[in-house]
TrEMBL record, chain A:
Name this polypeptide is given: Putative spermidine/putrescine transport system permease protein
Principal location: membrane
Membrane topology: Multi-pass membrane protein
Organism expressing this protein natively: Mycoplana dimorpha
Similarity-based family: Belongs to the binding-protein-dependent transport system permease family.
Keyword Secreted: no
GO CC annotation, single: plasma membrane
Cell location: Cell inner membrane; Cell membrane
InterPro entries named in the record: MetI-like, MetI-like_sf
A Gene Ontology BP annotation from the UniProt entry: transmembrane transport
Transmembrane parts of this sequence: 7-32, 67-88, 100-122, 134-158, 179-200, 232-252
Residue stretches making up the ABC transmembrane type-1 domain: 63-251
Keyword line: Cell inner membrane, Cell membrane, Membrane, Transmembrane, Transmembrane helix, Transport
Stored PROSITE patterns: ABC_TM1
UniProtKB/TrEMBL annotation, chain B:
Descriptive protein name: Putative spermidine/putrescine transport system permease protein
Entry keyword set: Cell membrane, Membrane, Transmembrane, Transmembrane helix, Transport
Protein topology in the membrane: Multi-pass membrane protein
GO cellular component: plasma membrane
Coiled-coil residue spans: none
């Protein structure tokens, strides 16, 4: 009875792990099929779909948009978010919990609500169908991740180092550059990776703000999935899965290096 | 703001030009607050304003009296509730194995949890479309094993939406459960069995009550996130079983009824805030309990 329960338990847990992993990874082999529909197991082996995607002007344009927007949003969110985290870490001030709540709330706001709200406001400001509009929108989504990540790493810093540096005659800027920043760098970098991935994967807001010229890779995928499922889309998905795996490894590397 | 002067973690040079002392780092909060006020808070307030033309509640009245909207809100709750129950039920044994299965099990299960967590929601929904379509792997498998002789309709059904959402929410549900479970001392179960309780009785009377805060936290988190799902139901569901996020998008994209769409968005925002407030309350209660038992 006891043994039976144990077997049942581990079967359930293993099936859950497979349920988590398989649907995510199964797309990768499917992208190598020689058939024009998605098949599993894939029939034959070809890199044709990858060539087709990489050579297509609309995918290239979307890739360019995605890269520009994600880099810009990651930089903006990292600068603003790191500054905020430093201020929150070093100070106690009235209303601090409210400011903290404000900084983190984009994380829990339903993204469709943000999308339509930004659409209404940005259209009045001429930011719809521009890369800049997407950058601002994605920066909003990314700031909480940077704040959380930098706050976590500034808590690890010995609090007497900053006074020590100031006491030895260093200025505030010098202290920041030579003492604080190197110590919180793992948090800053992993926050930047989070911010980049947040923008890179974002689709709902982009659906509302982007047009045919400014559309990003996720918008292209969305359109493909809604119209025709072909192995080319699976090839894009496979590339993105590998890229996010690299991003995760990078972010964990930064965290470990602290 | 002068209250910051009593902070001692950052010493400041006395006597700035303004005549009061503030740690310089304090000003670093300003860009983030301004940025979010402009690009985050203002759009949300704008929605509230659009939903109340001349202060009239007509759109809210329309939402809560028209059967179509009530059905969509009901459907959103129904799907979110089913998804929450299924997700927590699957997450529970998984978190238990992570908490009490030893280092190797923890490592493997954590990797299995994090890989899908980091692949975008859109790609995972895409995977499920491919797997569940009529000529997809799931139907092929069921036909090959002789369980069915014709493909089942899995996509464009509530079933498809639920399975896709459970897959996406599972990591969120496992983590709070794991956090609580790893602090539970398994010797309590041994003690209950020495006292003559069966495993089931020990589990029901000892382990499960101790894990209950984790169950609550993970259920509320899953439910909160489920309420606002858009991509997954749009790709895997049928328009007939639409959830509130799809209805909001439709009001802006197709009906061009911005006032009504804004009112629906405000309703979703309030529902999410209530659900998330519950999450905060459970966590606060948990921390207080942890502190008390820690002192005892």
């Amino acid at each position: 009875m006891d043994k039976l329960r144990r077997i049942f338990f581990w079967v359930v847990v293993s099936l859950t792990a497979l349920f988590l992993l398989l649907p995510t990874l199964i797309i990768v082999p499917m992208s190598f099929t020689t058939t024009s529909t998605l098949e599993f197991p894939p029939v034959g082996f070809t890199m044709e779909w990858y060539g087709k995607v990489i050579g297509a002007p609309d995918w290239q344009a979307a890739l360019m948009n995605s890269l520009v927007v994600a880099f810009a949003a990651a930089i903006l969110a990292t600068v603003i978010g790191t500054a905020a985290a430093l201020a929150l870490h070093a100070n106690r001030f009235p209303g601090k919990p409210i400011v903290m709540g404000l900084l983190l709330s984009p994380m829990v706001t339903p993204v469709i609500v943000l999308a339509v709200g930004m659409y209404m406001v940005f259209s009045g400001w001429g930011l719809v169908a521009t890369r800049l509009g997407l950058v601002f929108a994605h920066t909003v989504l990314a700031i909480p991740f940077v704040v959380v990540s930098v706050l976590a790493s500034s808590r690890m810093v010995n609090p007497s180092l900053v006074p020590a540096s100031l006491g030895l005659g260093a200025g505030h800027w010098f202290t920041f550059r030579r003492v604080t920043l190197p110590l919180i760098m793992p948090g800053v970098l992993s926050g930047a990776v989070f911010a980049f991935i947040t923008s890179w994967d974002e689709v709902v807001i982009a659906l509302f703000l982007a047009d045919a010229q400014t559309r990003t890779v996720p918008i292209m995928i969305w359109n493909q999935v809604r119209t025709n499922l072909d192995p080319a889309t699976a090839a894009v998905a496979a590339i993105l899965i590998v890229l996010s795996a690299l991003g995760v490894l990078l972010s964990y590397k930064f965290r470990e290096s602290r | 703001m002068t209250a910051t002067t009593n902070d001692r973690s950052v010493p400041v040079k006395a006597g700035s030009s303004r005549g009061f002392r503030l740690p310089p780092a304090f000003w670093l909060i300003v860009p983030s607050v301004l940025f979010l006020a402009l690009f985050f808070v203002f759009p949300l307030l704008k929605l509230v304003a659009i939903s109340l033309p001349d202060g009239s509640l007509e759109y809210y009245h329309q939402i809560f009296t028209t059967p179509v909207f009530l059905r969509v809100i009901g459907e959103t709750f129904r799907v979110s509730l089913i998804v929450t129950v299924v997700t927590v039920a699957i997450a529970y044994p998984y978190a238990y194995a992570m908490a009490h299965g030893g280092r190797a099990v923890l490592l493997v299960l954590t990797i299995a949890l994090l890989i899908p967590f980091w692949v975008s929601l859109l790609l995972r929904s895409f995977s499920w479309v491919v797997l569940l379509q009529n000529s997809g792997l799931v139907n092929d498998f069921l036909i090959a094993t002789g369980l069915i002789d014709r493909p089942l309709r899995l996509i464009r059904t509530p079933f498809g939406v639920i399975i896709g959402m459970v897959h996406i929410l599972l990591p969120y549900a496992v983590l709070p459960l794991y956090t609580v479970m790893k602090k539970i001392d398994l010797r309590l179960m041994e003690a209950s069995s020495i006292c003559g309780a069966s495993w089931l009785r020990g589990f029901a009377r000892v382990y499960f009550p101790l894990s209950l805060p984790g169950v609550m936290a993970s259920a509320i988190l899953a439910f909160t996130l489920a309420l606002g799902f858009y991509i997954t139901p749009a790709l895997l569901g049928s328009p007939r079983d639409m959830m509130i996020a799809q209805m909001i998008a439709g009001q802006f994209n197709e009906q061009l009824n911005f006032g009504l769409g804004a009112a629906l968005a405000v309703v979703l925002m309030v529902l999410t805030a209530i659900a998330f407030g519950l999450f905060g309350a459970v966590r606060a209660a948990l921390q207080m309990r942890g502190r008390r038992t820690g002192e005892a």
